[in-house]
Amino acid sequence: MGGMIESLKSETLALLKTLGVPESAVTGGTLAARSAITGEVLTQLRSDDRAAADGAVKKAQAAFLEWRGVPAPKRGELIRLLGEELRANKDALGRLVSIEVGKIVSEGLGEVQEMIDICDFAVGLSRQLTGLTIATERTDHRMMETWHPLGVTLIISAFNFPVAVWSWNAALALVAGNSIIWKPSEKSSLTALATQALFEKALGRYRAAGGIAPENLSQLLIGERDLGEALVDNPAVALVSATGSTAMGRQVGPRVAARFGRSILELGGNNAAIVGPSADLDLTLRGVAFSAMGTAGQRCTSLRRLFVHESVYDALVPRLIKAYGSVKVGNPLETGTLVGPLIDKGAYDRMQSALTAAKAEGGKVHGGDKVEIASAGDSTYVRPAIVEMPKQSGPMVDETFAPILYVTKYSDFDAVLALHNDVPQGLSSSIFTNDMREAETFISARGSDCGIANVNIGPSGAEIGGAFGGEKETGGGRESGSDAWKGYMRRATNTLNYGRTLPLAQGVKFDV
Ligand code: UN1
């Protein structure tokens, strides 16, 4: 499992410097920034309080009023420059992601690539914020819809995609003409500071080339729950885009709704895959392994439930158990490691409780034990667990944010579809099959009830081009590609009369 992991403190400080984070931002506070790899405190940050939240919203509102007047393609130019900064700093930012939250190297880099991709997407979008022209029932009239900037956009992001999820929201919101405030997870403040620094660099270049942008267009606030609450409750925040647990969404959603604000919620998933009798089992094995063990099971889209047809169960499941037993768990910065640490001890404890509960339901647990790694601090490594369950019950219907894959055998397709949908969450899903009827049924209206439904690839690792999000307790929000941009804008319906009379709709007569 590799030797002692050295302290990552000096490397982190050097990376922060390279990425342009001022030293004053990472010294002198009381909020500990840790590395999931070593568990050590990397630096102490200052945190923002409620008063800072109110001040930031006021500034953001002023910035919005100016930014909305800048033509969208010019706003896109700022995002193009952000994409350039991200390209130039991909290695350093990817490395910082790995150090702070424990992603393996390719996933840390992949996260930055996702940011670059959404910047490219948003640049194109900045010339395509189009509205429909709609047939009108009245003579000499034109009806159309126009899309306008919405207002201050609050982005609440989670530790597991500490920077990519910000970029999905930030790139779209900024191109849409909104100002943004970012409240990252307190477990991933350093990558947030670095991303903000790269944004500032892009902004500097944009202005140097004559671009107009207000002060405080993008603000980063570091802090804990009370800070988030103050931001969420502020009526001048037009849109709250929150990614995190369903428990968090249950707080945020109703509070924003109570003041008739808009929210985009991207909450928990309990993603499943069905393996049909005709599935290509080699491909399935790889798809399942990546989706379930990748990012140590800490993606919203991680595969958590696997339904395997009885005719292929014995050909697949023992191979999977073997893969679980041999996958390299350890320092995510080392070549060959596929599973890095859990974010913290709390995640480990929740994983163990779920495994205990699964045993009580008759589950047969393979793996899940602690992997001892000598490190500079207090980190948490675990062998991914695969649990053979007699039926879908107990912890299998909950989301545990850890690498646990529950596996059950099925015989009837319609019954397994019902089981697939019989959980409160509805984010992502997949089917492994070469049977066209099964594949088409799975993605049809009577198939998967999730926001993402895949065939012959696992439920995680979505590209930015599609709308990302899901139904039920996942919160219903859509971020990233397709027409998710509409969630960041205000739609107006316009009717114009270019005639000399005033025909009323629905044949109403009103002659004065
Ligand atoms: C998340 O876990 O919050 O589809 C986002 C995926 C990634 C994004 C996951 N592109 O797995």
Small molecules in complex = 2-aminohexanedioic acid
Quaternary form? single chain
Major pleated sheet = 7 strands, mixed
What's the helical proportion of residues? 25-40%
- Strands of the widest sheet, in order across it, are 12-13-14-11-10-16-17
- Structural class assignment: alpha/beta
Number-wise, the strands total 21
Strand content: 15-25%
Question: Overall mean pLDDT score?
Answer: 96
Question: What distance lies between the first and last C-alpha atoms, to the nearest angstrom?
Answer: 87 Å
What are the low-pLDDT stretches, counting only 5+ consecutive residues below 50?
Answer: none
What is the gist of this entry?
By secondary structure, the chain is an alpha/beta fold. It has helices spanning 9-18, 50-67, 72-88, 90-101, 105-125, 164-175, 189-208, 225-233, 246-258, 281-293, 310-326, 345-360, 413-421, 436-442; strands at 31-34, 41-45, 133-134, 141-149, 152-156, 180-183, 218-220, 237-243, 262-266, 271-275, 303-309, 364-367, 385-388, 404-410, 425-426, 428-432, 452-455, 467-468, 471-472, 479-480, 489-497.
